[in-house]
């Protein structure tokens, strides 16, 4: 390969140039807090829901690509450069990015200064840890001005990109010691806030984007970075950011460890403030204290690696093909865990503002992870079944924050219900947990209208039989296993697809694919029925 290689011993993919054909990204996170990071430190973070709890801002379909991330600028008086190459794009003397299991490490060197940035989401904490190591490899003293940089999203990612007449008036921050807090709408309607900290006393900060960058600048060369200073700006509306400035002196061969924490916290409604309009910072402070030292960070990274080793140990192969072993034992399993958590809801090409978690997608994803995290598979099955409609149909998507069906998309995707049968049968085969069929699950998240999971499967099965066309084949509905197969057979309107709009009266399209799925998953359903005597 021209751009990198697999390191099987370290279970990492190593990228050897920042100028890859497109951003090569890693997905970080295990439960509620998630991040995307590219090989040049681009990307963003969110809590549970990439639309409704977007923490940092990212620009899709932008020029140049991959704009915004967790950026670190170094100004040594002779050169200005970035630890991840972008956004400054100053030529580096050495560069290497290692995408590992749940973490990414970017190593770079310029003008006798080595940098190493390790980014990961630790277990049990709603934050992203950014461990930056700097070392002077020369024989003279180095004086460096370091600026950190993240840009806050105003929580709802769709509203953040569209509702400017309101959003440009709402941005709000607090600064306390070395922590910058983002609290837009916290006073009025929210119980959550974000923060960005560093484990050193700072020499300055900025929270207003225009003050930091300069009104007509991009992120490639901010005014404050170029001038080696900070404005101590406090954002009132416009575009809030978080930037720390630190003056660092490195003696020859001296190393410096800086630990930045990008985090999310929630407070009870009646305990939002520690005094008038001042954030209750207890949760943030507890998380920050957990990552104040190099030792704490290294221990957390070890725990994360052990977590992945345990997951991957549940199923391994040893063949005569190292490529097969590599993919089955490491990367396919890692990818399956990623799709389970994200379900195509957010990526560098899916903005995370319209999809939510797919009903079809999530049922499919369960098959790839049930042997690693069966308890999470069980929880996801019940969440999905709870969005099913009383007639056996289902919402096509649900929002992970609320776990309710996505009304923006709705239902009538006629293949969706059958996938529930597949995921449940896969779960039972793996776990022998027949009790799941007895679980009482609501329809359309209505606790007043519920039935056993087995009844949900019956209605999934019968939903196909209840929606047949004139040839006895299942009706397509709004999709047929392929949302992008745009059939315009009943519309002369440009851009209108038969498969993504409601049907015109008395128009029918039938599906051989759904019929085949019905036969395949019907067998799974029949097998479950035959085994009902095994249910406790």
Structural Rg: 26 Å
CATH topology of the largest domain: Beta-galactosidase, Chain A, domain 5
What is the beta-strand fraction? Answer: 25-35%
Unreliable spans are none
Helical content stands at 25-40%
Helices, by number, come to 12
What's the structural domain tally? Answer: 2
> What strand line-up does the widest sheet have?
1-2-9-10-11-12-19-16-15-14
State the separation between the terminal residues, measured CA to CA.
55 Å
Give the tally of β-strands. Answer: 26
Q: CATH superfamily of the largest domain, called what?
A: Glycoside hydrolase, family 65, N-terminal domain
CATH architecture of the largest domain: Distorted Sandwich
Q: Average pLDDT across residues?
A: 90
Give the CA-based shape: globular
Biggest β-sheet: count, sense, barrel? 10 strands, antiparallel
CATH class of the largest domain: Mainly Beta
Given helix and strand content, the structural type is: alpha+beta
Notable characteristics:
2 domains; globular; Glycosyltransferase; six-stranded antiparallel sheet; alpha+beta; Beta-galactosidase, Chain A, domain 5; ten-stranded antiparallel sheet; 12 helices; 26 strands; 536 residues; 27% strand
């Amino acid at each position: 390969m021209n751009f990198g290689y697999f390191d099987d011993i370290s279970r990492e993919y190593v990228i050897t140039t920042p100028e890859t054909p497109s951003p090569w990204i890693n997905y970080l996170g295990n439960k509620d807090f998630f991040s995307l990071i590219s090989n040049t430190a681009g990307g963003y973070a969110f809590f549970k829901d990439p639309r409704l709890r977007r923490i940092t801002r990212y620009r899709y379909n932008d020029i140049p690509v991959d704009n915004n991330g967790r950026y670190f600028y170094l100004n040594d008086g002779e050169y200005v450069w970035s630890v991840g190459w972008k956004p400054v794009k100053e030529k580096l003397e050495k560069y290497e990015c290692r995408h590992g299991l749940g973490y990414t490490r970017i190593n770079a060197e310029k003008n006798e200064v080595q940098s190493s940035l390790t980014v990961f989401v630790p277990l049990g904490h709603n934050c992203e840890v950014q461990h930056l190591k700097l070392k002077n490899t020369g024989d003279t003293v180095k004086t460096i001005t370091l600026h950190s940089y993240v840009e806050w999203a105003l929580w709802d990612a769709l509203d953040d990109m569209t509702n400017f007449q309101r959003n440009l008036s709402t941005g709000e921050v607090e600064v306390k010691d070395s922590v910058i807090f983002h609290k837009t709408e916290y006073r009025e309607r929210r119980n959550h806030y974000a923060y960005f900290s560093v484990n050193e006393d700072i020499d300055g900060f900025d929270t207003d984007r225009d003050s930091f960058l300069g009104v007509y600048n991009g992120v490639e060369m901010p005014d404050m970075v170029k001038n080696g200073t900070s404005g101590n700006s406090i954002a009132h509306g416009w575009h809030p950011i978080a930037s720390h400035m630190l003056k660092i002196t490195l003696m020859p061969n001296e190393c410096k460890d800086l630990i930045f924490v990008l985090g999310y916290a929630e407070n009870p409604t009646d305990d939002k403030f520690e005094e008038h309009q001042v954030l209750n910072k207890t949760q943030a402070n507890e998380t920050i204290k957990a990552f104040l030292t190099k030792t704490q960070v290294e221990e957390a990274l070890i725990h994360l690696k052990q977590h992945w080793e345990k997951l991957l140990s549940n199923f391994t192969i040893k063949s005569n093909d190292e490529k097969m072993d590599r993919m089955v034992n490491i990367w396919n399993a890692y990818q399956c865990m990623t799709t389970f958590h994200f379900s195509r809801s957010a990526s560098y090409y899916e903005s995370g503002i319209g999809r939510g978690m797919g009903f079809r997608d999530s049922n499919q994803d369960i098959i790839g992870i049930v042997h690693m995290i069966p308890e999470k598979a069980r929880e996801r099955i019940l969440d999905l079944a709870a969005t099913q409609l009383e007639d056996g149909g289902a919402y096509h998507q649900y929002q992970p924050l609320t776990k309710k069906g996505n009304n923006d998309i709705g239902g009538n995707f006629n293949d969706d219900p059958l996938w529930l049968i597949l995921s449940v049968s896969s779960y039972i085969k793996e776990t022998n947990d027949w009790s799941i069929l007895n679980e009482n699950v609501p329809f359309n998240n209505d606790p007043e209208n519920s039935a056993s999971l087995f009844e949900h499967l019956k209605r999934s099965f019968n939903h196909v039989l209840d929606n047949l066309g004139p040839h006895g084949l299942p009706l397509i509905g709004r999709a047929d296993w392929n949302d992008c197969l745009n059939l315009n057979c009943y519309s002369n309107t440009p851009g209108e697809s038969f498969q993504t709009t409601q049907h015109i009266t008395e128009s029918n399209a039938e599906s051989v694919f759904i019929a085949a799925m019905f036969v395949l998953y019907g067998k799974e359903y029949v097998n479950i029925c035959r085994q009902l005597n095994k249910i406790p």
